[in-house]
UniProtKB/TrEMBL annotation, chains A, B, C, D:
<protein>
    <submittedName>
        <fullName>Cyclase family protein</fullName>
    </submittedName>
</protein>
<dbReference type="Pfam" id="PF04199">
    <property type="entry name" value="Cyclase"/>
</dbReference>
<dbReference type="GO" id="GO:0004061">
    <property type="term" value="F:arylformamidase activity"/>
</dbReference>
<dbReference type="GO" id="GO:0019441">
    <property type="term" value="P:L-tryptophan catabolic process to kynurenine"/>
</dbReference>
<dbReference type="InterPro" id="IPR037175">
    <property type="entry name" value="KFase_sf"/>
</dbReference>
<dbReference type="InterPro" id="IPR007325">
    <property type="entry name" value="KFase/CYL"/>
</dbReference>
C-alpha cells in the first residue's frame, strides 16, 4: 500500500489563457496517462488499484455495522431541469398496480396479486458513475480507443458493464466545507491538491492506494437550504480545480465522486478547456468518476463517528454498452 | 445469532386440491406473519434481521478479496420474450456518441468531448429485487397496508426506496444442482425445507439469522446450454416449493433470491394458488425476494474455494415509489 | 342538415355554490346524454354526426388547394413544465444517425445508409385528441361503461383506436379574440353559447350538423408574445364556460378543439366542479375533444381568405387501448 | 396535369453483379435527381407535385363519404420481433386509469375523473412515413445535404416536421395480387414499371402528377392467414423492383407507400445494393416513402366500389428533427 505523499511543487500556477490551459492540460494528460499500464485490453483503469489486499483491508472498515446510502432518490423531482441537453428526470410508471387489483384485472391469478413497474431515465440524470467511455480527448478515450467504439448502439469498449464487479473497496470522505468551517462551498470555489491533503490530515484519515474518494462540496445542502435545484444540473458549481489531479494520481486513487453534477469547479479554472480533470483523470489515468452523490448523511455520520473512512460498495448496473449508470452507493461503517 | 434449527415435522404434506392449498397457505401466512414485529411503520421486514452484529460478522467473510457479480447484463438479448404482460427487455439509447463528435456536434466544447445515454426498462425485466409492495394477499401487503397505497403514481409504502440502505450482509449460496449431482434442475422440480437444510450441511455452511440466501437451480446454465431463453421469463421453472417456507422463516433469513424468474417452482405445488411463497414470505414474513440472479459464476467460485458464504452487497436503486429494482449483486470473498 | 339555432333561454345563470354547480351540471349531463343514441355498442359518439352526406359537403370546402397544419411541433420545448402530473414533453432519440454512418457502423449495407429514431411521450403532452375513455363522471364513461374498462393495460372500450377512421369532416374556426377585437383572451375569460353563435354570424359561417369546431382563445399567441409557456400546461386559461354546452349540443357538433390545455375556462365557472364541459360533452354527449391545437396560422388564413370553414382532417394514431392521441390536424381550403 | 406515359424501353435489364448494380443505380440516381428543382432550400421533394390544382382535383374524389383507415393498430402485437436493430413494438402505459379512480386517488377533483397515458415507440415500428432525412447515398441526403445534419439530437434538415402540412392529395391503389389473380405475392416476387402501368390500366385508374400511390403486395393478408408476423419486420418480402423507379418518376408521383416493411422487393434485384429505390426515389428524386401500410380494407373497398382512386390524408406527426413518423392514413371515397 502507498503512503500519503506530499503534493507536487510543480504545476501550481493556474493558466490565464486558453493557450496556457491547453499546454497545462496536455502536459498533465500525458504525465498521468495510464494507457497500457494494465494491458492493452484493460477497461478498468484505476479500479485496478483495488487489489485483493486493498479489498481485504477495506473490509476491516466495517466495525459498527452501520450503513449510509449516498444515492439521491430517482424521481421526477430530481436535479434535471433541462439545462443539460437531453437529460431529464426519471419517468416511472406502473405496469400493474393496486387499482388493477381493485378492478378485478388479476382475478385469474387465484389469491396472489402483484404490482409491477418500469422506468425510463437518462443514465446520468441522478447519482451515477461515468464509464471510461463517457469522455474523449482529441478523439481518444481511455487506453487509446477511437470514436468508432461509441455509436448509437452503445460503447463496445470501456462501457459501464466492464466494471460490473466494482466499484467496491475502501471509501474516504473529504468534507471540504467542514474543513473550511462553512456550510457549503459557493459555485466557482475550487479545491486543489494541497487542500485535499490538508483536509485528509485534519480529518485524521490516511489515504491509501485503491481508495475511493468522495468529495463533499455541500452543494446539495445548499439546494436543500434554498429549496430549489436551480442550475444544479448544468450550471456553475464548486468543485475540484485542475491541480487536484496531482493528488488523485499520486495517491493512486481508484475512483472519485462528488456531490455536484460535474465534480469539477465550474467555471473551470482552465480558460478555454472544459472539464480538464475528466480529460486528465478519466480519459488518461483511467479513473472512474461519480457525480450527483448525496454526501449529506454520510458527512453527518463521519462527523458523528469522528471517522472518515468506511467500506464502500457502489456497483453500477451492467447495462451493456452504456457509458454511465445510476447507482445507489453504500458506505458501511 | 440464531443457530440452525431442524426443519419442522409439521406441514410436510402437499395439498392436492385448491381447497387444501388455500388452507395450507392461509395457515402458513398467519403462522409466519411478522406484521407489527418491527413496528407498525416498518417497511423493511426481515431485513431487520441484519443487525449491526450480523453486518460486522458479514464483513469477516471478506478474506481473499475476490468479487463476483450476480447480475445479468441488461440489454435487448435479455430473458423477456413477451411472456409476462408488459415486461420487455431494456431499451438503451445514446444521447450523444462518438458519431456526434466525429460530425463536429460538440465543437463548442473546446477539447472535451462526451458521450451520454439513457435506458427504458421494466424494473423486473432482469436481475432484480421485489419490493415489499410487489405482492398483495387478500388485499393487503406487508404490515397490513391496502391497495390504495399502490396507484399509477407508485407505491407510497413498502416501495423499494424504503430499503435504500440495503441489501447488504452475509450471503450464502445453496447450490442445489451440485448437491443433487446434476447440471441443473428441470422445470417443475421443487426444493423443500429439508433439502435446503441438507444442502447447507453438505456444503459445510452454517446458516445464521440475517443471512441473505441465494438459491441456485441452474436454469440459467440450462438456458446457456440450449442457447435460448425459451419460456424462462414466465414459464415453468424449477424452484422452491411451498414447504421451503419453514426453513426461511425459522432461520430468520433476511432476503432470498434465485436464478429463475419467479424463485418458486412452476407449476406451483399448491394447486389453485399461484406463487404461495410470495404470499407467505414476502407479504406476511416481510421478506425481500430477488429474481433472475445469475448464480453461475458464483457457484463456480464457491465450488473452487470450497466456501458457500461471502459478504453480499446488492443495493437497489432508490426509485421513489417503485415496486422493484434492477440490481447488480456482488458477492465478495 | 341542421340550421343554426338560437341559444337557449334556459340555463343562462351561472352557479355560485358547489351545490348549484352540481345541480346544473347534473341537469345538463342528463339533458344532453347520448348514451344508446347510436347503439349500446357505439364508441364514436357525436362523430356519428359526420354522415356520408356531411363528409361530401365537407369536401366542397376544398376550393383553393391550401393546407394549414394546426399541430404544434412535438419536442422538448413543448408546453409541459411539470404542472400536470406525469405529463412531460416528448423525448426523441436516434437509433441510427449520420454519426454512425460517418464512423462506418453501416458499412455492411453496401451504398445504402439510413437513419432511424424513436419517441417517448405522454399522449396528451401536445396537440391531441381526448378519447371518450379519457373522462369519467360518477364512475361511468360514455355510453355507461364502468371503471373496470380502463386499467393499467389500457382501455377496452371508447379508446382512441375506436375512431381510427376519423376525425375528418367540415371544420369551422370561431376566432373569439378577433370577434372581440383583442389579441387574445386573458386567463379566466369565458366564452358562452351566445357568443359562439354571435361569432359564427359575425364571421359569416353557417354551422351544420357534423361540423368539427375549433375555438381560438389566442392563448398560444400570448405564449409567443411573452416568450414562455408559463402555466399553459395546467394553469388558468381562457376558454369555454359551462353554458357553451348548449351551443355544441344543439348544433350537433361532431368534435370540438381549442388552443388551450383544457378547452374550458379555468378556473371553471362552476364552483366545486372541475371541467364541467368534459362531463357534459365528452362523457354524456360523447363528443371527442381536442386540446393544445395551434390555431394561429389557421386564424390568419381564415382572416386573409374571409372564410372560416374548411375541410378538416385530423386522424388520431390508432394506439390500441389509448385514451388520447397526438395528432397533426390539417385544415384544407 | 401530366398524362400517363408509357414505361421506358431503356434500363429494362436487371443487373447480375454488384458492379452492374452500382452502375445502374448510379445512373438512375443521377437521371432522376431533383436536387435544386424546387429550390436549394426545398425539403418537401416530390410533395411539391401536389399543387393547389392537384389538391382541388383530389377533393373531387370524395363522392360517397366513406373513410377507410390504412393504419395498423400500434400495440405490443405489432410486426417488430427484433429483426431490425433497435426497432421494437410500441410500449403503451397509463399515467392514470380507472383503478386510480376506484382507489380514490382523484378524490380531490370534485366529480370529474380522468385517465391519461403515454407511449414509447420507434417511429418506424408500424405504419409510417420515411422522412427525406431517413436515407443517405454516398454521404448525401435529398438536396445534397451531408451527414452532419443528422446527429443524436435529430435531423436539422429534411426531417418529418418539414412536411407537416402534408401528406394529403389524391391517392391511388395498385392492387397487384388482384391484378395477378393471386391472394398475395410471395417474398422475393418483384413488381416493375411495366406491371404498375398495366395494373393501373386494368383497374381503370388514370395516373396524374401529384398522386400518392399505394402498392398492395398482400403480405399483410399473408401474415393474417398464417397467424404470425414471422420475418415481416426485416426479412424477405415481395415489392418493387429497381425498374419500378421509371414509372414513379415519369408519372410525377408525389409519395409512395406499400404494405411491407421496406416497400422494395427483398432480396433486392440489385445484387450488392440494398434498397435501391430508396436511393433513387427518396434520396435523389425526393420522394417520401411509406411503409407497413395496411391496405387490406382499402383493397376490399376499391374492389367493391370498382374505383381505385380516392382522397388521401396521411399527415405525419411533426416531431421536430424526426426521420420518420407513425401515421394513420385515411382514404376517403
Amino acid at each position: 500500500m502507498t503512503e500519503v505523499r506530499s503534493s507536487p511543487a510543480v504545476g501550481r500556477v493556474l493558466p490565464s489563457t486558453e493557450e496556457e490551459s491547453v499546454a497545462l492540460v496536455d502536459d498533465l494528460c500525458l504525465r498521468y496517462r495510464n494507457w497500457g499500464r494494465w494491458g492493452q485490453d484493460d477497461q478498468r483503469g484505476t479500479l485496478n488499484f483495488i487489489t485483493a489486499e486493498a479489498l481485504i483491508y477495506a473490509a476491516s472498515m466495517i466495525r459498527i455495522g452501520r450503513v449510509v446510502s449516498c444515492g439521491l432518490p430517482f424521481n421526477s423531482d430530481g436535479p434535471q431541469s433541462g439545462g443539460f441537453g437531453g437529460r431529464t428526470n426519471p419517468v416511472h410508471w406502473m405496469l400493474q398496480d393496486g387499482g388493477d387489483i381493485a378492478l378485478g384485472a388479476q382475478d385469474h391469478l387465484g389469491v396472489c396479486r402483484y404490482t409491477d413497474d418500469a422506468v425510463s431515465m437518462p443514465l446520468q440524470s441522478g447519482t451515477q458513475w461515468d464509464a471510461l467511455a463517457h469522455i474523449f480527448y482529441r478523439g481518444e478515450m481511455y487506453n487509446g480507443h477511437g470514436l468508432e467504439h461509441v455509436t448509437s448502439t452503445g460503447a463496445t469498449l470501456n462501457s459501464i458493464d466492464r466494471i460490473a464487479d466494482g466499484v467496491v473497496g475502501r471509501g474516504i470522505l473529504l468534507d471540504i466545507p467542514r474543513y473550511r468551517g462553512v456550510e457549503w462551498l459557493e459555485a466557482g470555489q475550487s479545491i486543489d491538491d494541497v487542500e485535499l491533503a490538508a483536509c485528509a490530515t485534519a480529518q485524521g484519515v490516511d489515504v491509501r492506494s485503491g481508495d475511493i474518494v468522495l468529495i463533499r462540496t455541500g452543494q446539495i445542502a445548499q439546494v436543500r437550504a434554498t429549496g430549489s435545484w436551480g442550475e444544479y444540473d448544468s450550471g456553475p458549481a464548486p468543485g475540484l480545480g485542475v491541480h487536484a489531479a496531482h493528488w488523485f494520481v499520486e495517491n493512486e486513487i481508484a475512483a472519485l465522486a462528488a456531490d455536484t453534477w460535474g465534480t469539477e469547479v465550474l467555471p473551470n479554472d482552465t480558460p478555454g478547456i472544459f472539464q480538464p480533470l475528466h480529460l486528465i483523470l478519466l480519459v488518461n489515468a483511467g479513473m472512474t468518476i461519480g457525480e450527483i452523490f448525496d454526501l449529506e448523511a454520510l458527512a453527518q455520520t463521519c462527523a458523528e463517528l469522528g471517522r472518515y473512512d468506511f467500506f464502500f460498495s457502489a456497483p453500477p448496473l451492467p447495462i451493456t454498452g452504456a457509458v454511465g449508470s445510476p447507482v445507489n452507493p453504500l458506505a458501511i461503517f
